[in-house]
Write the structure tokens for this entry.
Amino acid sequence: MNKMIGRLAGAAIALLMSAGLAAAQSKITVAVGGGACLCYLPTVLAKQLGEYEKAGLAVELVDLKGGSDALKAVLGGSADVVSGYFDHCVNLAAKKQELQSFVVYDRYPGLVLVVSPKHTAEIKSIKDLAGKKVGVSAPGSSTDFFLKYMLKKNGLDPTSAAVIGVGLGATAVAAMEQGQIDAAVMLDPSVTVLQAKYADLKILSDTRTQKDTLAVFGGEYPGGALYSTAAWVKGHEKEVQALTNAIVATLNWIHAHSAEEIMAKMPDEIVGSNKEQYLAALKNTIPMYSETGKMDPKGADAVLAVFSEGSPEVAKANIDVTKTYTNKYVEQVKKTTGNAK
């Protein structure tokens, strides 16, 4: 009898402890601007590695078509945090909406302007995109911003090409192969998938490496980051620190493991059936991932400069770019976990 009472008491304590743990975990919804894209891999991998749970968070990842959709989810209140490109924080500052990035996981944007295999003959340069249909993940997303910047940089009206939303994964590849669009701004693994199929694939601009990024923007240019409204960040410092701890731990893990080991941790539906292509794309992308999680102030300045060139609204808004990001939480990672480099 005493043994039974002991077992029942033990079971009750275990239930109470698990209930307490669930209560202790803060529930956070993160809207991702295209989970299959390698640019967002650290956000997904953090969940696969259990880093959010270790940090005391119950994180739900909501996969959306593009960064603009993820941003709408946060502004509309259906998500807490965006996993998307930092440039939205700068763009929205011109509209007096205060967004703040708190951990950066992409040092380079990884955006690639590619010509459809069916239209290689007539499109030789960016100038040839005037009047053409160009695919982006979603209108108003970073892929769209990049297209407009490249058009203006090459002496064209930023609105001279017709923008078509085609997503980032298989839908974008299909639209390119079928010739539904003349060109597209794409990200890996989609670019590597096309390169494997079409040896003569025409690339008009590439920002997957430091060298190419410097050539396009004149400096490093941050891509993916976690951000939210400045009010949410200020009101949820504990959760923001926990998210930052999880992402920094994941970045450390990425740079301590091989591409094969990273791929093995990713969900099967994201890796897809062609593991060789995914692995090749991942190897191309790993140098893009931050080693620290910190925002480079010069990188933030570069984003402002790019948007000021492409958007009169941003140019005349007198934006204080230092308010669009904070390194405070990354700098506190070591104090709370000992994980920071």
User: Anything to note?
Assistant: The chain has two domains: 2-109+221-336, 112-206. The longest strand covers residues 26-32.
